[in-house]
Amino acid sequence: MGAYSNDDLAFIPSHCSPILSQDFSSSKHIHDNLHGNIYLQPLFLKFVDTEHFQRLRDLKQLGAAHMVFPGAVHSRFEHSLGVYWLASQAVHVLHNHHRMELDIDNFDMTTVKLAGLLHDVGHGPFSHLFESEFLPRVLEGSKWCHEEMSVRVIDHIVDEHCIDIDSQIIQRVKEMILASSEFALPKSSREKYFLYDIVANGRNGVDVDKFDYIVRDSRACGLGCNFASNRLMEQMRVLGDEICYPAKDYLTVYKLFSARADLYRTVYTHPKVKAVELMIADALVKANSYLEISSCIQEPSEYWKLDDTIIKTIETAPDPELKEAKDLIRRIRRRDLYQFCNEFAVPRDKLEHFKKVTPQDIICSQKCCGVTLKEDDIAVSNVRIDLTRGTLNPLEHIRFFQDYHSSSKFSIPDERISHLLPACYQDMIVRVYSKKPGLVHAIYEAFENFQLKTYGTKAQVYETMEKKRRRL
């Protein structure tokens, strides 16, 4: 940690991006391996120095991806600091480019920075696994999401730690965090809507949250990344209360979405990563009734105690009620994972009416082969990979300008972009796993039968090796 001082709105040079020079006389800095020095002023430190925010150190950013990519052990803590820093840069860039017409004041800057800092404080163990794989199975009809939990935790932090902060700031921060979720709140201000697009952009998906995690995750996994946020950050402008980008940089914007899709395909939904996540989800479900894990989401005062160490709790507990869950964790430790049987990509003309495949679908497609499959023998992963707008071209929802003297904005339709870009913007991949090695062949054949029955053809790209299918 260290201290510096300077003007609040000026820039100082950096090797990677423009770093804001603020009044650092009472600030602390943290050296981040992606952004360099990140400076935290006293107000933001009041939130960082709480057990609720420090809990993010024990939440891996990429869930179980480190089981396949050993370097992917970074946490929600450093990601949150990174988003705070990029949000800080973004709002200062806009202030400097639009000093008079936008009237960005200290209230605006504080809300954007605080939203960036706290946007992920509501995440559960193993990140998205908790809300997408675990909770729907133990709480029927649950629509819980980490963004909604984040705003509840923020209220709790303010009350618990008696943080002296304007209630209007907190209200705006909560609105910004929920802006891209189904729980989006009505904006309390009728002005400066563009500020809501900086951290969690519900309008078109271009936000500093992605700017940070795409580069951070790629680096941690040892993958290349050809997306650079600096160019977009430096050249963005506000036209008609919306953040716009130079038309000549439309491919740079597209790289943001394509890089994200590549990470989903290569890392986030890697077949082995999903196998581990399916096992962790099963372990949490089996342990839930005894440990009452899901009950923690009711109260932020209990929720902060929940992090990735729940697995170690299960693994080391002597309680016989946790035996099944413990056995699953032991299997993960010994690399005795659910066996990947095969996958297929849903044909393009079937995407619109696709219905998630279930273990029961596979069982109903089984023909006589000497083994009777049960629902608990099979795990199915329905993986959707898109460019944030489903089957739509994301560039059509982003506004561009011709040059810096332009006062008008426009979108770029399909026919005006590079013909090398895809004509379809979404993949749906169905993967099937056997929970028991000896059933791989039976499940593989049932899975093929399901494809033939559903699509009239086998949609898989390759066949699982015969020696793997026959392994006992």
From TrEMBL:
The family database entries (CDD domains) matched by this protein are listed as: HDc
Q: Where are the transmembrane segments?
A: none
Quote a single Gene Ontology cellular component term.
nucleus
Pfam families named in the record: HD, HD_assoc_2
Domain HD residue range list: 76-214
The organism's superkingdom is given as Eukaryota
Report the GO molecular function annotations.
dGTPase activity
Q: Which GO terms describe its biological process?
A: dGTP catabolic process
InterPro entries in the record? dGTPase-like, HD/PDEase_dom, HD_assoc_2, HD_domain
Q: What is this protein called?
A: HD domain-containing protein
What organism is recorded for this protein? Beta vulgaris subsp. vulgaris
Provide the organism lineage as a comma list: Eukaryota, Viridiplantae, Streptophyta, Embryophyta, Tracheophyta
